[in-house]
Amino acid sequence: MSDAARKTTALLLKEKITQEDLLDLDERERALFFKKTNKIFSKLKGVERDAFWDKIELVVHQQTRNMLWEVNHAKITHSISALMEQYRRMPTKQELAEHTGLSRLTISRHIRDYKAAPQYLADWEQFRFMTSKVLATVFSGAVKGDVKAARLYFEMVGAQNQQTAGTVINEQNNYIQINNTVLNQETLKRLSNEQLNQIELIVNKGLLQETKMS
User: What is d(CA 105, CA 96) in angstroms, rounded to the nearest whole number?
Assistant: First the structure.
């Protein structure tokens, strides 16, 4: 056994590995140590996985922590979706543990701390990024006569709220793109009441056609 392998084995026998424990390792020995720990960790499940994480947690790089969080999140969300489809109810923590290979403790902590995690905001930014596509789809359904889509469209862009003084446009950050034309709140505010009414008439015409067909 090489000197680097002996040092790695000795560290893994410790109850808790700290940054100070790594000071005696050179670059090659550190690489071997992390390669070994990654290999061990990837094969463990449940409480054994938790126990090994507790051992190495203080020396794990932040990038590795983020990757592990994302892997756990993907496993948990996939399992919740799959088990809800199978059982027609929200799965228990035990069922999630069996399906993911994670421990009940890991699952409970992940769900509890999800909103406080930086990745939570990143997830929402991805959803916000897709807003324009969803809004364009709603608009497309509205002009084809889909009543529900038309109502949802008006709610999203604020064009449904009218008062006697004229059309009121609520503040929104959404927009849609029709071919090369972008329609957002600033664009709507620059339109006259007559122009806004023309847009409404187009949609209402589709609604009338839908009503006659129903």
Answer: 11
> Burial, 51: exposed, middle or buried (Cβ in 10 Å; 0-12, 13-18, 19+)?
exposed
How does DSSP classify residue 114?
G
Per-residue model confidence as pLDDT tens digits over 113-152:
887 777 777 777 777 777 777 778 888 887 888 878 777 7
Asked if 107 and 97 count as a contact pair (C-beta separation under 8 A), the reply is yes
How crowded is residue 33: how many other Cβ atoms within 10 Å of its Cβ? 23
DSSP for residue 170: -
Query: What angle do the packed helices 131-143 and 118-129 form, to 10 degrees?
Result: 30
The reported pTM is 0.56
In 3D space, the residue among 179, 182, 184 whose CA is nearest the CA of residue 156 turns out to be 184
